[in-house]
Design goal:
Blueprint lengths: L3 H4 L24 H35 L13 H23 L8 H33 L6 H25 L9 H5 L3 H19 L8 E3 L17 E8 L6 E6 L4 E5 L2 E5 L6 E6 L23 E3 L5 E7 L4 E8 L5 E8 L2 H5 L7 E3 L3 E4 L2 E4 L5 E4 L15 E3 L12 E2 L8 E8 L12 E7 L7 E6 L8 E2 L3 E5 L2 H7 L11 E7 H5 L7 E6 L1 E3 L7 E4 L5 E5 L4 E4 H7 L3 H6 L1 E3 L2 H4 L1 H10 L17 E4 L6 E4 L1 H4 L2 H5 L4 E13 L2 E12 L5 E10 L1
Parallel strand pairs: 16-20
Antiparallel strand pairs: 1-6, 2-33, 3-4, 4-5, 5-6, 7-8, 8-9, 9-10, 11-12, 12-13, 13-14, 15-17, 17-18, 18-19, 21-22, 22-23, 24-25, 25-26, 26-27, 28-29, 29-30, 31-32, 32-33
Helix pairs in contact: 2-5, 2-7, 3-4, 3-5, 4-5
Protein name: PQQ-like domain-containing protein
Keywords: Membrane, Transmembrane, Transmembrane helix
């Protein structure tokens, strides 16, 4: 407004508060000493509130940049944050009106006008602080983590309210003091009382800023590392221990994975290591927040083996969990799988690399030494930032739906990321991208990939390697740091497209180490024979490569052995055989015609409750062509305590999966327990150690 440049210089915010005040009102009985002390307290509150608001505001801005989207509207109605900003705007308007219009007026203003202005500032700011604080608590409870930005905004609002209110009350106090002559330095130097109050205010604000970080803390137990046992090579059919998880539990099961020393149970809120012999929990980590699946890696949130929920280093010694924060950020927690100790926790803000991989969440990749999360490359030892992913040029597919491109600035949106269980790279190599052109006109998919790699300790040494054999209708397959490559890439590239149409496209292929391809290792290629393409198997620890039917070759990266799957199936042993097994209901249970025949034979109606639950308790382990079937009988795989307590209930066993882990092979399957009386059912997941 006109003239506000000079008149809108409110004395209530200036350093001229020690100027000769007006004479006290006649009849005032307040001692001058007490009046001065009150003025010093208000000056300290004003200074401390201003500094607290500045500190909290800077911190809130920093957190908002690291957590984009946290301040966005969470509903169509007026949320508490928006209402709080309106109240703060009201308080600021009242203060500005008094400072610029009422205060500069020539006529003196009564005390009640000043008190009214102070109340009109104090009340809205107090309500705003309460609303923001309550909103922070609600949002934090919803995600199980301290919600970012809001607590800092609450402290900043409180600091602003304290500053402005103290300024108005200080003007009221100044009007009651008698003038005194003091040196200029006395006006500029704060008193001890002012300093003490300012320090106390900042201390209270700092404590309020620090408290949220101590809420929603994790609970963990740790153990001493033990020597890892070998993975059993044959499948037992007798349960030796059991764990049961109800689907309705707040910490229900997401899946089971194999760690470095035994099976690891992944729940909604954390992880726990199991003793392979007793099934007892050895170590655990849990927090109120829920684990969110990572993105990429041909991952689907519906996968039952927890392959989307966790990352595992190729040597299985580090487990990566991701907790959502309610905004575009993920709390990454890395655990030592041998002890359960927390290696580090890191708040990762979703960046351009995450978005490039067509993700809605964090894209990770794990080696034995580093964790790549978006652009960040973190040490698995302590979480320190060791590098950033380099920019690489990956060829574009130019809208060819049969071409696949991963990485670079514009990945093919029809494609998926290189398949690797648990988001693994090589043992010492990061995969930076892949390009799989449609080079074979006689097939509907790519048969060749160029893969861009770099050692995890030198990301400037970028290497692009051709001749990587992709899975049918997808990209390369990586298991335990190994993939499949043509034995003679140049000759194979020339051969593609020059063969007759009835020629079955097989070529000599090798299993190759990513570390050797990137220069981080020297493992020699392992010949696999004349084959067609690898096949992805979720959570597998062996490479499965298909040839002309019925040829299927299995490569075990741990031992370096190459085996024919048919031979392993005949022997019913070997890690490749175990990886190939699927847990299913017996064929007569799963076949629709068999179900209808069962209904007709027993005079039942065609309702799900009457489909013979009591007889559908067995399971069987089948390989890919059903040539090997191993029965898992109900009495053998069920906890005797559950059998004894089954009076009045019917158990219906669903499909499951096996987890070969050091010391034990774990069976995981779902079941429905149906009450005979009222028909209600309780769905559970059972983890069984087989011996």
């Amino acid at each position: 407004m006109a003239g506000c440049g000079t008149s809108c210089n409110p004395r209530l915010m200036s350093t001229d508060d020690d100027a000769p005040p007006s004479q006290p009102m006649p009849g005032s009985r307040s001692p001058r000493r007490n009046q001065t002390r009150r003025a010093d307290i208000l000056r300290g509150l004003r200074a401390g509130g201003l500094l607290a608001a500045a500190i909290a505001g800077i911190w809130a801005g920093w957190q908002a940049r690291r957590n984009p989207g946290v301040l966005g509207p969470h509903s169509s109605s007026l949320d508490p944050l928006s209402l709080s900003f309106i109240l703060l705007l009201v308080a600021a308007t009242v203060w500005a009106f008094y400072a610029c219009i009422v205060e500069p007026a020539d006529s003196p203003r009564p005390r009640r006008t000043l008190l009214l202005a102070a109340m009109l500032v104090l009340v809205p700011t107090t309500i705003a602080v309460v609303l923001i604080g309550r909103y922070w608590w609600q949002r934090s409870q919803a995600i199980g983590l301290p919600y970012p930005v809001l607590s800092q905004l609450a402290v900043a609002s409180a600091g602003i309210g304290a500053t402005v209110t103290a300024s108005l009350l200080l003007h009221l106090e100044r009007g009651s003091l008698t003038p005194s002559k003091q040196p200029l330095l006395r006006h500029l130097r704060p008193t001890r009382t002012t300093t003490a109050v300012a320090v106390l205010t900042i201390t209270v604000a700092t404590t309020a800023l620090a408290l949220p970080a101590n809420t929603f803390q994790p609970q963990s137990t740790q153990v001493t590392a033990t020597e890892a046992e070998p993975i059993p090579e044959t499948l037992g059919n007798q349960g030796i221990w059991w764990h049961t998880f109800d689907h309705n539990d707040s910490d229900s099961l997401k899946g089971v994975v194999a760690g470095a020393t035994g099976p690891i149970v992944i729940t909604e809120h954390g992880a726990q290591g199991l003793d392979p012999h007793t099934g007892e929990t050895t170590w655990s980590y849990t927090r109120p927040a829920e684990i969110q699946p990572f993105e990429g890696g041909k991952c689907r949130a519906s996968d039952t083996v927890a392959g989307c929920s966790v990352g595992l280093s190729p040597d299985r010694t580090h487990l990566v969990l991701g907790y959502g924060t309610g905004g575009e950020a993920t709390l990454l927690v890395v655990l030592d799988t041998t002890t359960g100790a927390v290696a580090f926790e890191h708040m990762h803000a979703i960046d351009d690399v995450d978005r490039t991989w067509r993700s809605w969440g964090t894209h990770i990749q794990v080696t034995d030494h580093v964790l790549a999360a978006g652009e960040e490359v973190l040490s698995l030892t302590d979480g320190s930032l060791v590098a950033s992913l380099p920019e690489v040029d990956i060829a574009a597919c130019d809208n060819d739906s049969m071409c696949y491109s991963y990485g670079g600035d514009e990945p093919s949106y029809q494609s998926e990321w290189v398949f690797s269980s648990f988001f693994q790279g090589g043992h010492s190599t990061l995969i930076l991208g892949a390009y799989c052109p449609h080079t074979d006109p006689l097939t509907s998919s790519a048969v060749w990939c160029d893969v861009t790699l770099a050692p995890d300790n030198d990301l400037t040494a970028v290497t692009t390697v051709g001749g990587i054999l992709p899975e049918f209708d997808s990209g390369p397959v990586v298991v335990d740091g190994w993939t499949v490559r043509y034995d003679d890439p140049e000759a194979t590239y020339q051969d593609v497209g020059e063969r007759p149409k009835d020629f079955i496209d097989t070529h000599p292929v090798d299993a190759v180490s990513l570390d050797a391809l990137s220069g981080a290792g020297d493992a020699a290629p392992v010949p696999l024979g004349d084959l067609i393409y690898p096949e992805q198997v979720r959570a597998s620890r062996t490479l499965k490569v298909l040839g002309i039917s019925p040829t299927v070759v299995i490569f075990d990266p741990i031992t370096g052995q190459v085996n024919d799957l048919q031979k392993l199936t005949e022997q019913r042993s070997g890690l490749g055989y175990l990886d190939d097994l699927k847990i299913r209901q017996p064929l007569e249970y799963g076949n629709v015609e068999a179900r209808l025949e069962y209904i007709r034979e027993h005079g039942l109606e065609e309702s799900p409750e009457e489909l013979g639950y009591k007889d559908w308790k067995d399971l069987e382990a089948r390989n890919h062509d059903y040539s090997a079937i191993q029965q898992l009988n109900y009495e053998d795989i069920t906890d005797p305590a559950d059998i004894a307590a089954a009076d009045g209930t019917l158990a219906y066993y669903h499909d499951g999966y096996l987890v070969p882990a050091p010391g034990v092979i774990t069976l995981v399957h779902d079941r429905a327990v149906v009450d005979d009386n009222d028909g209600t059912s309780n769905h559970q997941t059972v983890v069984v150690g087989l011996g």
